[in-house]
Design a protein that fits this description.
Alpha-D-ribose 1-methylphosphonate 5-triphosphate synthase subunit PhnH, seven-stranded mixed β-sheet, PhnH-like_sp, Rossmann fold, 22% helix, four-stranded antiparallel β-sheet, alpha/beta, Phosphonate_metab_PhnH, 11 strands, disordered C terminus
């Protein structure tokens, strides 16, 4: 989607590979095209996906390509949120016990993203499939939003898959992962994107 600054062939292919990496290794951060949220949406949204977004530029670009089937966040397959107040992630579809993969994928644009802990971001500990012991991820969202994400993923195998984007970086927390916020924010050990 060139209008969004994303090469529709090479950019989406590289973004897809990065998404596979971050989904299979929660807590890792990968680099994609900038802006990362547009690269992720361009990669994931096709003509059969229902979308919710609060981004007018993205709506126009998807509509111009016939790829915008706009619905409320609670009915969407993919939710793109520039502002976390746009949705209550706990209301998003979580799939079913028979088809847990039908849960919503939520793409957040955040102010910062870092593997490890970072003083200016909300730090969470991740455990579960793809994580060797525990992974630490720092995200530019309020603690209450990360608590809401944890609640939305508390019905495993049902839940939401979450992708965080900041500038040209991306990280993910799939529905199979347990999220906990440490009682104290540890000292900074990684640079923010």
């Amino acid at each position: 989607m060139r209008t969004l600054g994303v090469d529709p062939v090479h950019g989406t292919r590289e973004t897809f590979r990065s998404l596979l990496d971050v989904m299979s290794r929660p807590g890792t951060v990968e680099t994609v095209a900038d802006p990362a949220d547009y690269a992720v949406v361009s990669t994931l949204v096709d003509h059969e996906v229902r979308v919710a977004t609060d981004d007018e530029t993205l709506k126009e670009a998807l509509s111009a390509q016939g790829r915008l089937d706009e619905v409320a966040p609670s009915k969407a397959n993919i939710v793109h949120a520039r502002d976390h107040d746009f949705l209550d992630v706990r209301d998003c579809g979580r799939g079913s016990l028979i088809e847990p993969s039908n849960g919503t994928t939520v793409i957040y644009r955040v102010e910062g993203l870092a593997a490890g802990s970072h003083d200016n971001l909300t730090t969470v500990s991740l455990s579960g499939p793809g994580v060797d012991g525990t992974a630490v991820l720092s995200v530019g969202l309020p603690p209450a939003e990360l608590d809401a994400i944890a609640a939305a993923q508390s019905t495993y195998p049902r839940g939401v898959d979450v992708i965080f984007t900041a500038a040209e970086t991306v990280a993910a927390i799939p529905r199979s992962v347990t999220i906990e916020r440490p009682a104290e924010q540890p000292a900074s050990t990684s640079e923010v994107a």
